[in-house]
Specification:
globular; single chain; alpha+beta
Amino acid sequence: MSLLTTEDKTFFKENGYLIRHNMLSEGQIQGAVDTLWHYIEADRDDPQTWVDAGPRSPDCGDHPAIRATLHETDLFAMCRELAGDLSDDADPSTILVYPSGSDEWAIKLPHLDGYNKSEQATVGFTIGVTVYLSDVAPRGGGFTLWPGSHKTVAEFFKSHSLLGLNMHHSGGIVERDMGRIFNLNEPVELVGQAGTACIWHGYMVHSGTSNCSDQIRMALVSRISTKNWDLLQFETPDDMWEYWEV
């Protein structure tokens, strides 16, 4: 039985993302959060120590409780309904945004993941998943994206190199130029309770924001490629959906 409707797929093609709520069980949330607290350099029982704490990205993506948030939920199956046959070896990356202790809120520079590496590196990925392990209110460090930017980026890559996008010396652009080059629309900040997830196209321009709340924004981000990515990673077909299921 399909997990996504025709309307869901149409929305994804047009906007480049889907938002889903209640994607994790309480047990999965608690297990992942407990795992993260083994790495956070702060006192779990003293929120005052959370301000500007660290680390930002604990290296625990291969922990069973962390992997379960992708591989033991419907999220991976939803990605397959959109993108086809995907590699199942992706480990979520942990990205924590600690309270800033300030009321000054800002969106960080927009960017793409995976397009500023050397020619020997794997370039990009097919589809991303961001899932929250904590409740995230507006101005609470939410994952932020620019709807429709995946289509503009696809057109850009038809006539520009996939390599060195953020490096001037390779003829690319830097993050501060993203809005001008891609004519970005108004951004959308992902807010919601723990278990809220965003599935997004690998060409999606996105960013983070500062965290004006008193809670740690806990998120897991998975970047998933098709099984034959080694053959397709440099392909820029006229139809950007040629290798997709949508």
